[in-house]
Known about the structure:
Blueprint: H1 10-19, H2 28-38, H3 41-59, H4 68-79, H5 86-96, H6 98-111, H7 126-132, E1 136-142, E2 149-153, E3 160-165, H8 170-174, E4 182-186, E5 189-190, H9 196-205, E6 208-215, E7 229-233, E8 259-264, E9 270-275, E10 284-287, H10 289-304, E11 321-327, E12 338-342, H11 348-358, E13 363-364, E14 369-370, E15 385-386, H12 389-397, E16 401-407, E17 410-415, H13 416-424, E18 428-432, H14 438-441, E19 449-455, H15 480-497, E20 503-507, H16 510-526, E21 529-532
Parallel strand pairs: 12-18, 12-19, 13-18, 14-15, 19-20
Antiparallel strand pairs: 1-6, 2-3, 4-5, 4-6, 7-8, 7-11, 8-9, 9-10, 11-21, 14-17, 16-17
Helix pairs in contact: 1-3, 4-5, 11-16
Domain SH3: 226-296
Region (Disordered): 292-319
Family: Belongs to the MAGUK family.
Amino acid sequence: MPVLTAGAGLHETLALLTSQLRPDANHKEDMVFLKDVFSERSLGYLMKIHEKLRQYERQSPTPVLHSASSLAEDVAEELQSGPMSTEEKELLHLLTSPHLKAVLSVHDTVAQKNFDPVLPPLPDDFEDELEEESVKIVRLVKNKEPLGATIRRDEATGAVIVARIMRGGAADRSGLVHVGDELREVNGVSVIHKRPDEISQLLSQSQGSITLKIIPAIKEEDRLKESKVYMRALFDYIPLEDKATPCQEAGLPFKRGDILQVVTQDDPTWWQAKRVGDSNLRAGLVPSKQFQERSFRLSRKDRQGSSGEGSDPGDPDFLTYEEVTRYQQRPNERPRLVVLIGSLGARINELKQRVIAENPHRYAVAVPHTTRPKKPHEKDGVEYHFVTKQQFDTDALNNKFIEHGEYKENQYGTSIEAIRSVQAKNKMCIVDVQPEALKRLRTAEFKPYVIFVKPRVPESRRRRSAATSPGGGEHGRITDEDLQEMRQSAIQIDQQYGHLVDRVLIKEDSASACAELRGILERLERESFWVPLCWVRT
Length: 538
């Protein structure tokens, strides 16, 4: 085996290494690939240029300064400006001697000249070769994951172009493939005349090592900078069921309530995003807010006819994303409002009263208003705020209640001021309301944390104790019709208001539900949670 000498250059080392590449049965493809790369003429020229520059760095002396003569004259002038010691007189004599002046003059002349090395000339046909062979051979390694890139056919030239690079995918991690690159071959197979779906299938079926032949884009885009835009998904998305997606395998499935980190919104139709908390670092395609709303409108028109009447962007069917951020209550801030909503059979008022009774110094209810007469044992402002019907109607007309209604010919309502009164005492206010009130309460002032309480409803009363209600306690026989109404109530609330809910609490019994609610309230005071960005933006 040939041995390199101590003074061998890099291009000689490369040539020797190339000569020693011997393809074997296991690594034949890899060896052929390396030999082709190492044998490139352009690489040999670059190695020779590199050696010349390194040799120049090692051997060329660098002058300390370029004007030694002027410095000597300045020192001599400084010495003559005052009384001199014996050593200073000797130094002045040396600096003014003709011989030293000549030496310093020669030094300055040499120091100011350019002694950069003369690089070896490139062959005459080298530029033509580069023009013809401006091709990148890219070797990637991927397992069962997608390549992380989508392609499109250029309508003008017919070329297969890289349309987008997915963050965190194999193509992105390599840093070798860019948007705008033209794809020529995949593992030696030409893709020039193949359809995009055939190319996508070829890429997805390739496992392990994959070799791409690419013509670089004229101007490569900068790699995507990871953004800090977070969105709460307000709908479910299944890419495999979406015919509009440019690449189903690149799509990111998610469920309503998932938090998505949108890493780029450069494409107005398809964003790239990652699910927060997902171990998969590769970003996926999700429909943009604008595109999803447009899709909803089109589907609504298909259902309602060409008139499209009733297409309201505020309708739950049009919900897409809500921009969110992390928020943690600070010591000097008022506690967040806790809102309980419940489906039929949840008995949330009982749950609320039980938690407050356990710790009345930390939790409290908003004292409601009523027009009914005060009972002897009651105090105004404790059980209720007792007001006249005229005053109640005036307050209702001025939108002072978050909700109000009539019961046995008496009016009842919970006012916004009653909530503020509890929070002013640095207590966490817990209210149970009808779901319709959520839109009124979801403000930056209250920053409500919404808990949807629903009883666990068995499929049939025959599968449970017939005398025990789902919420716990003895409330007589529960029929199958009752269970069906409970299920339907929970489904209806979830469909209409589920996107406003932060937590779903399944109530097995009163004791376990109370313990779970208490744990939620304790974490709410010390941990951070996702809230709409508009609640904390200053």
